[in-house]
Design goal:
Pathway: Bacterial outer membrane biogenesis; LPS O-antigen biosynthesis. InterPro entries: Epimerase_deHydtase, NAD(P)-bd_dom_sf. The chain has a single domain, classed as Rossmann fold, CATH 3.40.50.720. Helices cover 39% and strands 16% of the residues. The protein is built from 9 helices and 12 strands. The strands form 5 sheets. A 4-stranded parallel β-sheet has the order 3-4-5-10, with helices on both faces. Strands 1-2 form a two-stranded parallel ribbon. Strands 6-9 form a two-stranded parallel ribbon. β3, α3 and β4 form a beta-alpha-beta unit. The two termini are 30 Å apart. The mean pLDDT is 95.
Length: 300
Amino acid sequence: MTGGSGALGRHVISLLIGDGWDVTALVHRNAVPVPAGPGRLRMVSGNMADPANMLSALSEVDAVCHLAAYLPPDYESPAYASTCFEVNALATLRLGGLCADQGKRLVFCSSGQAYVHSSFAVTEDAPLYPAERATFYLASKLSGELFIEHLRRNHGLQAITFRVGSCYGPGMPRSSVVAFFMAQAMARKPLPVRDGGVPSCDFVYIGDVARLLTAALETGVGGIYNAGSGTATSVLELAHAVKETFSEFPVRIDVAPATGPVPASFPPLSMAKTRRMWGHSPTSLKAGLAAFRTHLEREI
């Protein structure tokens, strides 16, 4: 497991340990909390830039879940483009090559936000061209995806790539829009909505993505699959959904109109192919927000 200390990684590790898997987590900076369960967690200190370190980590595993990624502090700045490509593309290529050489199954998280915008749910064969928003990051993730697909098609790599929507739920950073709105509502503070609340994306509950990743480590035909909710939700619609989650007390929504260009929206992700492969049924936004609230209240 790479990226095991992140929110999604912690969810995946918890599910795997609970199912009795022994997990090796490559740890770069932050240690991974040890979840309860019959499986065991082994932490290996190092990073993906060290081939010897990677070979050591791979020596005792059957499959690899690759979640590590570089998230730039400013998605619109070209200053972070080289780091995005080194970590998200080239390091992914190196890991994929090692997995192909050693016959290890690889499950990789790409992004579902590289598609050309559409008001309809996009399938996995829809056009990709992330030129309007977060281009340097999304292009690096798409490059990593292409490298993995090349290795799968031409070098025998057993690989499944998920194009993931906008994750929300327990463990996600407070700076993410859903976590921020939830924290504001719990504190009975207004939900500030910028740009008229027009931008939209496919919000997917983090537990759904974690379950898909764990399933794909064991089953599924290689290739590319969407991991979303199947529905696009605008920021304004999200604010109203959060308000409804806390319906027992008033939550004010403050909508500010756009003062410049409105950020591009991302399309909903068709889940038909993913549903056929794993029988997956996405969690609704209403149910996901309710589960998120329950988790946050336990932390108080």
